Amino acid sequence: MVKNVPLAMFFRLTYRAQNYSKPAGSRENALKGNLWQKAVLHWHPKRSIVSQMNLKIIKAARQDPKVFGELYKLYVEQVFRYLYSRIGYVHDAEDITAQTFLIAFESFDRFRQDGHFASWLFTIARNKAMDHFRQRKNTSSIDEIEDIPVENDPLCGVIQLEQTAALSKLIQALPEEDRELLRLRFLAEMSFPEIARILHRNEEAVKKTIYRLLARLHSQLEVSNE
After folding, report:
1. Global pTM?
2. Region label for 200, one of left (φ > 0), alpha (ψ between -120 and 50) or beta (otherwise)
3. pLDDT the model gives residue 4
4. What are the structural domains, with CATH classification, of the chain?
5. C-alpha span between 74 and 82 (Å, rounded)
């Protein structure tokens, strides 16, 4: 890492260097592409983000902190997409992405479950998102904080092609708890076991709920297109 540059700033600058070599505004436009359209309208099982290669990198990072940079490259896009979907502002999502990796880096020596790195990392990201909303709504209750205003949730802003209006309306109508499941599954690209671990829920219940949500969205879209 660059000498004398604070770690949080280093992570943020690295992310900006990777994603802002494009013309201004292209980042937001990319986030408003057909990611959710593909995920919901062309539903198919996702593979786990954890692979044997990732496990090797995690173990190598224990021996050499410099290798943590490889973990950053592997997960930064998913973390950013997830946080952007929660927060709604690119700049804030970048900052909290940097803070997430800073916390992970500084506490990595205490992390022991190599096979659950993604769950651990996204738990940090979720906690940082909650901190963000607590700071903005420090007089609100926890329930109010968790129930993010739907109209500001860019979860619906990433589907801008075919059937946008209908699908956007359906997603807006979902409870925050259901939107969170979809975020973790399709934006963060988490496996069912990883989602269950993050949310402290039963894996089979998570799987059934997500499939039920997708089936309902498909059915409702078909009705709206008739």
Report:
1. 0.70
2. left
3. 41
4. 44-225 (1.10.1740.10)
5. 14
